[in-house]
Every structure is written in C-alpha cells, then in structure tokens.
UniProtKB/TrEMBL annotation, chain A:
Name of the protein in question: Acetamidase/formamidase
SUPFAM superfamilies on file: Acetamidase/Formamidase-like (SSF141130)
Source organism phylogeny: Bacteria, Pseudomonadati, Pseudomonadota, Alphaproteobacteria, Hyphomicrobiales
Pfam families associated with the record: FmdA_AmdA (PF03069)
Signal peptide range: none
Species of origin: Ancylobacter amanitiformis
TrEMBL record, chain B:
Annotated Pfam families: AraC_binding_2, FmdA_AmdA, HTH_18
Record flagged with keyword Heme: no
InterPro entries: AraC-bd_2, FmdA_AmdA, Homeodomain-like_sf, HTH_AraC, Tscrpt_reg_AraC-type_HTH
Protein name, per record: Acetamidase/formamidase/AraC-like DNA-binding protein
The HTH araC/xylS-type domain, residue ranges: 208-309
Origin superkingdom: Bacteria
Gene3D superfamilies per record: Acetamidase/Formamidase-like domains, Homeodomain-like
UniProt keyword annotations, A-Z: DNA-binding, Transcription, Transcription regulation
Length: 412, 779
C-alpha cells in the first residue's frame, strides 16, 4: 500500500466536466491511499479571504486579458463566440484528478473510503490560518422564482467562517450579486460562469447577518465520482450512475462510497467541498469551501462481486458504520436515457417524484440481491424501517436517498 | 391496462437482461449489443389495449433492434427519436432520421442500428385488433421508411403525443387512442402494398379499398356486390373473384364484419344500456332472433351472455386499482343530497356546549379515555361530533387507541380485549361502528360498506378544550406511549402489529414477482422489555378476498375492520428472518377538527394535522395544531410501532397503543412573538428540533373546494410538498427568528434537512428539520 499526495495545481485540476479522455494525473493501485487537495470554485466570491496568498489557488484562478490558466470551464463549446465563456459554464465544479486505478475495467466497482477531511487555511496574512467559505443563493436554486422580498429575482452571496475548534460555521457578511465583467469583457448579470472574480467595489456588504446562529459543521465533498462512458465531456452538475455531484453531506469522514466503473482506469475526480449543507441544498449551493481529503481506494473486480453487497450494483452506494444508502435520481442514467440533448433534457425532468421512484427501485433491488429478501419482504421492510430523504433539488438530476440501517440485519 | 413503467435498475444483474427482453418480446422485438462489460441499462413505458394494441417508448444503451420472427399482424411501427438510426435489410442500408417512421412487416428480416443507443417509439398491432377486418398480406413487402408528412406525419404525431400522455390517460381514453392509432397504421400499411410493383399487391390494394367501402355501408341490410363493384368501377365478377382469392366469399365477409362489430359494441361498457336488438339493427340485422342465432353460431355464446360476462370482467378489472377518496361524480351527488338532509354524524354537538365540571382553575386534571365503540369515530373527522369530554388547558389525558389493522389477525389483536371487541364487533345482524369513512352510509358509491372506507383510521375522541377558539394553537405533548398487549389466552401479555403492503402503496404499480398486483399482510411481534425494543416478523400472508358479515366481498383491502378469516389465508412463516426493526412508537393521526366540511376523510393530512405519519411524533415530542373550530375537537389514533420515512407500502407497523398527553391551549393573543405566531400548519417539536410539515396541498379542502376530497388523491407530488415545506420554513425563520428572506434561504441551504414523510396518504408529505442547536443565542 502506497500513500500518495495530490496537490491542487493548474496541471492536476479540470473544471466543470468529467471526461473519459483526460489523461490521469496519478495512477494508483487498489489499496493505495491518496491525500487530495481541492479548491472551491466559489473562492473568487471573496478573493482576499480564499485566494490571495495561496499560490496554487492564485495560479488556478489566474485570468487576465492576456492569460487564463484554465480556459475550459464546463462541457460546453470551446470555440467562440461564447455566451458565458469557454466551456460555457456547463458544469462548474473545480475538480482534482482524474486518478486512475490500475486494472479497473467497466463492470468493476471502485470503493472510495473517506479517511479524513481538513479545511484549507487562508494564506492571506490578514486572515492567516482561518477558514472561509461561500454560499451563493443562486439562479438555479429552488427559491429563485419563488422569492417574496424585492428585488426579484436576485442572487445573494453569503461568506462564512468555519471554526474547527467548535466545529461550527458562522456567517460573516453577505452581498447582492451585481453584474460582473470578466477580463474577456463578457458581462455576467447572474452567476452563470464559474471563477469570475467578484469586484468588491461593485457590491455592498451587509454585516451582522445570521447573528447568533451557528451552523454545525458537516465537512464533505459535494462532488466525487468516476468518468462516465457515454460522452467525451460531461457536465459536472447532474449527478448520475458513476456518482459526481451527489451533494450528500453523509459522504464524509468514515464513509465508504462505491461507484460502478464505466471506463478503463475508473478515473476518479473530486472537488466541490462543503463546510456544511442541509438535505436539499435549497439555495443552489452549500457552504462552499476548499478541503483536502484523505482517501483509500479499493478496487472490487467484477468477478468478485457476487455474494457481496456490491452484487448487481449499477449506481452509487454509501456505506458507513450504521447504514447503507442508495441514491435515486430523477433519471437514473440521464446520459443514456435522454439522448443527445441530455444536458437540456435533464432540466425538464427534475423531479422528486422521479427520484423517489428510482430510490424505491434501487433499494428494493439492493435488499433482494444482497440480503436475499423476497420482494414482499423488501417492500414491508422498506415501509417500516427505511428512510427516504431529499438529497438535493438544485442539481438538475434531483436526488432522493433510500437509507437502511445495517443493525436490522445483525441477526442474519 | 394501465401504463407499465420498466427500468432495468429494478432488477438484479443476472435477471436484468431477461426482464428487458421480455418487454421487447411483447412488441415482437429484440435488442442486441449492450455496452461491453456492463449489464444493459434500459427503460421503457408501454401500454396494452384490450384489443391488442401495444404502444410505448423504449430506450437502452444497446444499439441494435430487430424483429423476432413471427407471422401475421400489421407491420411494426418504429419511430426513432432524437437521433437517427440505420436500417439494414439484406445488404441494403438506409439512414432513418429521427421523426421518420419505419413500417416493418413481421415476417421480413431487418435490423435497426442506433449509433447513440436505442431510443424509439414502437407500435405493435395484432390482427385481432380489427375484429375480422382483413389486414393486407405483407409477407412479400420489405420494410419501408416514411417521411413525417401526410398520413405518416399524422401517425407520427399521434404516436408521439400518445406516448407522451401514456401514463396519464384513463382506461377509456387509452382504448380510444389505441384504436385510432391502429386505424391509422392500417391505412398507412396499405401504402406499403400499393407502392410495390407486382400485380398481386395492386390487387391487394384494390381489396383494401373494397373492404373500406364495406365498412362504410355496413349498417345497410342490402349492401350488394353490384354496389361495391360500381363504386370501384369494376365488374361484379371481378369482385367475386377477388374475394374468392382470399378464401372467403363476399357475403361471408360482410356477415363476419357485421357480427364482429356487433360483438365490439356489445362488449363496450358504455353501450350496456342499448338494447341488443338496436345493436343488431345497427349492423343490418333487422331480425334480432336471426341475429342471436348467427351470433351464437359464430362466437359460441348468445349476445346476452357476452354482455353479462363483459360486465363482470369490467368490475373485476376495476378492482386491482382501487380508488381512494371520493370519485368526482359521487361528490356531486352528495352535494345535491346535502341540500336536503343533515349529515349523519354519530354525535352532534349539543347546543350550548357540554356541561362543565366544577373545579379549581389551576390544578391540572387527569383524564382517562378508554377505547370502545362509543368513544371512537372511524375514518373521518367532523366538526359536528359531540365531544366525549371537555378538558382545560394543561390537563393530562390518557387515551387508549386501537389500530384499524387489528382485524388482520383477530386472534392476536382483538379476541379477549373488551375494548377492541366492542369496536370491531360485526355480525350479520349488528355492526357496532357502522360508519367507517366519510362516504355515504348507504355505500352507494362502491358498495364497500357504510362510509365506503373513505378514511380508515380508528380515532379516539374528540376531546373539547375549554375556551379554544379558531386562531388559537393547541399543543399536544406526548408524555408516554404504551403498547396494548394481547388478551387472547394463547398470547396474553404479548404485543402484535400488522403492516399491509396495500393497493395504495407506492410500490403497487410495479411488481417484479408474480402475481401482479397483490396485497401482502405481515404480522409482527413487538418486544419492548429489552434494552433495544424492536419488532420481528412472525409470518405474512397474501390478502385473499374476504366476505364481511354483511355479505360484501372485499377483493382488495378496501374497507377497514373486515375481520380476516384464518381459514381463507395461507400464512407463510420465516419472513424477514433474523431482521430486527428498532421501534419508533408514535401516533400516525393527531388531529383537530377541520372547519371546511362536515365529514372529512381521515387519510389525507393537512393544516389541521390528521394522518401526519411522521415517526418523530413519539414520546417526548409535541405537535402544535391550529385550532379551527370552537373547542378544537382533538382526536388521536393510527398508532404505529415503527415506520420509515416514506411509509412506502402504504402502512407502518400498525399496533394498538395507549398514549398520555398534556394538552395546552395557546390563545391567539399570547402567541405573537413566539414560535407559534402565525402558525397555519402542524408544527412538530422534538427535544432536538423543530419539524415543519409540508404537503402537496397544504389545505386541500380550501384549495379544491367541494372537490377537495377527490382531487387531493389525484394531484399529489413530492415536488409540490417540497415547495410547501420550503415556503413554511422560510416563513418560520422570518416570523419567529426574525431573519431576512436572504438569511432564511442561506440557512435553509446550509443547515435545514428536508426529508420525505410519506408518499401514500393522498396528500404527500415532505418535512423540514431545523435543529435547535442552530440558535444557541436566540430564544
């Protein structure tokens, strides 16, 4: 077993897309552990606190009239003229990776154990050692067309500080998003392209917000997953059968995630770290923060899956000390089910009803296959002992988890 | 039949492929070449008409679609959607663009390749769909591609629209749509023939035109060869010859078509009231005795018998998809009747209110409400029920409740228990609690029984709270919950519960194992005297039709309290072996009486509480309910030993229990500035958190007005419930915590957890959990 360290640098990150065509930045063996740095794509909401002085972050976010370190952001067009910018922001998360696992092939399952997560301290001397995050209430949020106060609609960014001693997060200030002009001259009237540096001269800070409120910390990675097989460039926004933007705060220290491998080498990437998030991620984002994660990878070969909880697995599965959770989506595999225009089509299919149905089917199959229950037993057990919860209603492919406690089966 | 959803995700890896091919086989197709190394991922939605028209959409990550060899029937229609496909016939390849139609005769050998994976609409029509009308013989025809214009365009458009609405069409609507697309397909198939050069096909086309003339004039008794020949400008002799070439004479064909169409009309439920002689006359039989004889010779049964059989079948077909709540028509009739008569509630509030016991105002009193036939109302809430007792704010009440599912195992859960025996008592001559549900007492809607089971929960109450007025808030705090032990000598002291995977469950539309559909009852034993209280399954049985003491047969679990006869069922032991389910004792139903209607179905929860089915409402928790009628009229029931979020199968572990509650009245004037300010929905408080209850329709009675008790079942959605929960949390944070809208939204995204309460109670629920830890420095 080897321990690796994967820093976040311009060479080790990709922005806004998964791709089976990316060359791995690190190749490991099953059993290896990797410490992976990630930087939040919302760092530019407060450059001074989250980028300034952090060499890697400065390089990654570098964008002047003459230079843009990471040109492509998203799975969209890379040839202009652009509406928003190269990649068109069709996918927004800044991901570190991909990491290839030797010998991984389609049909295998990759287990990713989250050993620990640490926040990335500010490197600005003014804030040295402190941890900051950002939570925009954005145009893709559940609230956006359902606001009651003026101006309508609006986007609001709230900057938070994480206190690791107290394990809680408190709000520092907020501001209303104002149109931001990027170095290429494109105006962003809403948050429509990642990594645009907010010019704080154009916004009005509101202090003293959420005073006295402490949000318990739930450090986790919102996006962890493997490259899908269906297309060369896939937006990071809708989660799907190989994982991705699951936005479940339970994928945290102590959790084991299982993903079906779709391409040779598996190609794991992660990012979109959160200091905390509620089930639903209502406003469109969590408290977005830069985290470093320590992971252990175990490859389960196709031939060895039968008789284990991984038998027949075609979707992401979470395991921790207490539970198993299956992930249901509005559309189980939108890439294969919705045809070539899947990026737009999935936006029309966003529904908890679809996700609930999918979660039900997946949990029934899981119980029947891995616990050898009959269909009737599985249905009765789901009704009396499985908990269905909303994961997120903002990532196009909405999520419902079906969770079942492992202790139920202790006597079997 | 209803629309059938399919997804390979439902199946484990080894049977996934087979299940998928089964779906395609229904269409006469198969699919090949799945992505290497991974099991096929496929989805479909299809529907089959009674005449054998099958329509649906299929998609899979496998590229090749081809026909299974078979004979007869109209050609298959395949319509690639969103991306093109390549049609290969022998050595010839042709590109089919998305939106074009392929008509492919079943006998011919062809395959379609979809570069980006299969995505297509498919229509398959069996010859029987036309009831004796001849479809052209197409054995010699190769598949043909039609651009979406003219008739082909109409067929493509209709097919697309029909597939889009497949799961929303009612049965009669679907039958009509299916027949229409079949007709269009028949017509377009004729083109397949006419464009082939060989003389036999032009003859076939001519025959098709003759058939069409016959269909148009089929009602006339005197339709003749001469007339048909003249219409096409050919000789009578040639007409005769053409018919002979099909092995059937002209007159025989005409008679066959007349009989078939009469058969179709006789089998149509919508025409059940039309006299048989009139239908005979419609198709050129002026002598109905003659018609009956011919009909019997042809079909082996007289017309009257066919009608009777079809009527029975319709009734049975209606069963597996039981209906909850009021049908629209029945509600309309009820409204008409209500104008004349008072509602038939059991106890009507006496004018002037109940007598007040003398006592000192400060000392909280303790009350005890045993459960028996006099102390419960079954399946409904009503503002008109006379309260059993009146209590003061702060009083403590112990309330016995019974599960309506005790009848699933009368020996364990009823026998020997005086309270339960009193409530469930039902013999041919007497039924202790007649009204079960908010439906009509004469069961004139479905005939299930008095109240029609529009509402099922046995509720103990109501209890009036002194001085409670609309606008106040009633706090119901659960101090303790004790299960109700069995009184049967063989089981004395033990505790049992039942969980039914019922027809209103979320799973009911899609079973994997046979038979489809089915209802299954699982009986559980509850163990409380251990460190980790839990439930274990004892056995399960499939619901079998039960005949109640009044003689009504219940093919489905459609009426509460029907005592299951042990000799009619087959208990299967060893279910959920070794599985221990941790208990979450709680009351599914805690309600105050709603103001909008006289009788309200107990199933859909709403602003007044009711069937909340949230397991967090257990010992130590409280629910705050907005009072909407004087006295509040509190009722409690539907006790659960355990339930998961979702209550997927339709029920929890339903188990009789006794609760002790402290009831506190918060007057409207005193709640400004507290968490109860502006409360218009049930708010749950646990030691750790606030739980806000969102519903698809927060007040369905007001929203849909008179149709509420019907509409709420038709229009439920988690998306709506999520929206309601979001709005409630926003308001709660803004009103009671003084946050701005932006702060409230930011906090919700970062720290509020939304979960699924239930998807089975008509009005679906999403709850939001706010940890009290969030506000350490605030009130």
């Amino acid at each position: 077993m080897t321990k690796h360290y994967l820093p976040a640098t311009p060479e080790t990150v990709h922005w806004g897309y998964f791709s089976r065509t990316l060359a791995p930045v690190l190749t490991i063996r099953s059993g290896d552990s990797v410490t992976v740095e990630s930087i939040t794509h919302h760092a530019n909401d407060d450059y001074e606190r989250m980028i300034a002085g952090d060499t890697a972050a400065e390089e990654i976010f570098l964008w002047t009239k003459d230079e843009k370190t990471l040109r492509r952001r998203g799975a969209g067009a890379t040839e202009g003229p652009f509406t928003h910018g190269a990649g068109e922001g069709l996918g927004v998360h800044l991901l570190t990776g991909p990491i290839a696992v030797e010998g991984a092939e389609p049909g295998d399952v990759l287990e990713v154990r989250v050993i620990d997560t640490y926040p990335r301290p500010s490197a600005n001397p003014a804030y040295r050692g402190r941890f900051f995050g950002s939570n925009p209430s954005a145009n893709w949020g559940f609230q956006y067309n359902d606001l009651i106060e003026e101006p309508k609609p609006r986007e609001v960014v709230t900057i938070y500080e994480l206190d690791m001693g107290e394990a809680s997060v408190t709000a520092l200030y907020s501001y209303l998003w104002t149109p931001q002009t990027d170095p290429d001259g494109i105006v962003h009237p809403t948050i429509d392209y990642p990594g645009v540096r907010v010019d704080h001269a154009t916004v009005v800070r509101k202090e003293g917000i959420l005073s006295g409120i402490k949000v318990p910390a739930r450090l986790h990675f919102g996006t962890m997953g493997l490259a899908p097989a269906e297309a060369d460039y896939v937006s990071t926004i809708p989660p799907n059968y190989t994982g991705g933007n699951m936005d479940d705060w339970r994928i945290a220290k102590g959790a084991r995630m299982y993903y079906p491998v779709a391409v040779a080498g598996a190609l794991f990437s992660c990012g979109d770290a959160h200091a905390s998030q509620g089930d639903s991620e209502l406003s469109g984002t969590a408290i977005e923060i830069s985290l470093t994660g320590e992971f252990e990878f175990v490859l389960h070969k196709k031939a060895e899956l039968d008789g284990t909880i991984l038998e027949g697995l075609t979707h992401p599965l979470l395991e921790n000390d207490d539970v198993w959770s299956v992930y249901g989506f509005s559309v189980a595999n939108y890439l294969s089910e919705l045809g070539p225009d899947h990026q737009n089509e999935i936006l029309k299919r966003s529904s908890l009803d679809g996700a609930m149905r999918d979660a039900f089917r997946k949990l029934r199959r899981f119980l029947m296959t891995t616990q050898k229950l009959s269909e009737d037993e599985a249905i009765s057990l789901m009704s009396v002992a499985a908990d269905f919860a909303v994961t997120q209603v903002v990532d196009a492919n909405w999520g419902v988890t079906g969770t079942i406690r492992k202790s139920l089966f202790a006597g079997r | 039949m209803s629309a059938q959803p399919f997804t390979s995700e439902s199946y484990s890896g080894d049977v996934r492929e087979r299940a998928w091919q089964d779906v395609l086989r229904g269409f006469g197709l198969e699919c090949l070449g799945s992505r290497s190394g991974a099991p096929v991922q496929a989805t479909a939605l299809w529907r089959l008409s009674s005449a054998g028209v099958r329509l649906g959409r299929v998609s899979a990550d496998a590229p090749i679609l081809r026909s299974l060899p078979s004979r007869g029937g109209l050609p298959l229609l395949v319509l690639p959607v969103e991306s093109s496909a390549v049609l290969t016939v022998g050595d010839e390849r042709q590109i089919v663009r998305a939106g074009q139609i392929i008509l492919a005769p079943r006998e011919s050998d062809w395959q379609l390749q979809f570069q980006r994976g299969l995505r297509a609409l498919v229509l398959s029509v069996v010859p029987e769909a036309f009831r004796g009308r001849k479809a052209p013989s197409l054995a010699a025809c190769p598949p043909r591609v039609f651009a979406a214009e003219g008739l082909a365009g109409i067929l493509a458009g209709t097919t697309g629209a029909a597939v889009g609405a497949l799961d929303r069409l009612s049965d009669p609507e679907w039958e009509a749509v299916a027949q229409s697309v079949a007709e269009l397909l028949l017509q377009l198939s004729a083109d397949l023939v006419t464009t082939t050069a060989d003389p036999s096909s032009s003859r076939a086309a001519l025959l098709q035109r003759l058939y069409a003339i016959i269909e148009r004039s089929i009602g006339r008794e005197d339709i003749s060869v001469a007339e048909v020949a003249q219409a096409e400008g050919i000789s009578e002799r040639y007409v005769q010859k053409l018919f002979e070439s099909t092995g059937e004479s002209f007159s025989h064909y005409v008679r066959e078509r007349r009989l078939q169409r009469a058969w179709h009309d006789l089998a149509n439920a919508a025409e059940a009231a039309v006299p048989i002689s009139e239908i005979a006359y419609r198709y050129g039989f002026s002598d109905s005795a003659h018609f009956s004889r011919l009909f019997r010779e042809r079909f082996g049964l007289p017309p009257r018998e066919l009608r009777r059989r079809e009527a029975t079948r319709d009734n049975q077909a209606a069963l597996p998809n039981g209906q909850r709540g009021w049908p629209q028509e029945a509600l309309a009739q009820l409204r008409a009747r209500q104008a004349r008569a008072d509602p038939d509630t059991r106890r009507i509030v006496a004018p002037g209110g109940a007598a007040r016991p003398e006592r000192t105002p400060q000392a909280p009193m303790r009350h005890y409400l045993p459960v028996n036939a006099q102390n419960i109302h079954w399946g409904y809430f009503s503002r008109s029920l006379k309260p059993l007792i009146e209590i003061a704010s702060g009083d403590i009440v112990t309330i016995e409740t019974l599960t309506q599912h005790a009848s699933d195992d009368p020996e364990r859960m009823i026998e020997g228990d005086p309270g339960a025996e009193s409530v469930f008592h039902w013999t041919p001559g007497s039924k202790a609690v007649d009204r079960r549900g908010a439906g009509p007492m004469d069961a004139s809607v479905f005939g299930r029984g008095a109240g029609e089971g529009f509402g099922v929960h046995i509720c103990t109450g109501p209890i009036a709270v002194r001085d409670a007025q609309p606008g106040d808030v009633l706090e119901v705090r659960i101090l303790d919950i004790e299960p109700r032990p069995s009184c049967h000598p063989d089981h004395a002291g033990r505790v049992f519960g039942s969980s039914v995977a019922a027809w209103w469950g979320f799973h009911y539309s899609e079973f994997l194992d046979e038979p489809h559909p089915r209802e299954t009852v699982t009986i559980y034993e509850i163990f409380t005297a251990t460190d980790e209280p839990h439930a274990r399954a004892i056995h399960s049985y499939r619901w079998e039709p039960q005949t109640d003491p009044s003689g009504t047969r219940h093919a489905l679990y459609d009426y509460p309290g029907v005592l299951v006869q042990p000799e009619t069922i087959l208990p299967r032991p060893n279910v959920l072996e070794g599985v221990r389910i941790p208990l979450r004792p709680h009351f599914g139903v805690i309600a105050v009486a709603p103001r909008e209607a006289e009788l309200v179905d107990s199933v859909p929860p709403a602003y007044f509480g009711g069937n909340l089915d949230n397991w967090r409402l257990g010992k130590g928790a409280a629910v705050y309910l907005p009072v909407s009628v004087p006295g509040a009229l509190l009722s409690v029931g539907d006790p659960h030993a355990a339930q998961g979020d979702g209550e997927l199968s339709g029920t929890a572990i339903e188990c009789s229990m006794t609760g002790t509650f402290r009831v506190v009245l918060h007057k409207k004037a005193d709640i400004a500035g507290t968490v109860l300010a502006d409360l218009t929905y049930p708010l749950i408080e646990t030691p750790e958190s606030w739980v806000l209850t969102g519903f698809s329709h927060p007040n369905y009675l007001a929203e849909f007005g008179a149709n509420g008790q019907s509409e709420v079942y038709a229009k439920s959605s988690l998306d709506l419930a999520m929206r309601d929960a979001f709005r409630k949390v926003r308001r709660f944070l803004m009103t009671t915590k003084g946050l701005s809208e932006d702060e409230a939204i930011a906090l919700m995204s970062a720290a509020v957890d939304f979960g699924i309460t239930q998807v089975v109670d008509g009005n679906w629920g999403v709850h939001a959990i706010l940890s009290k830890r969030l506000f350490p420095d605030r009130a």
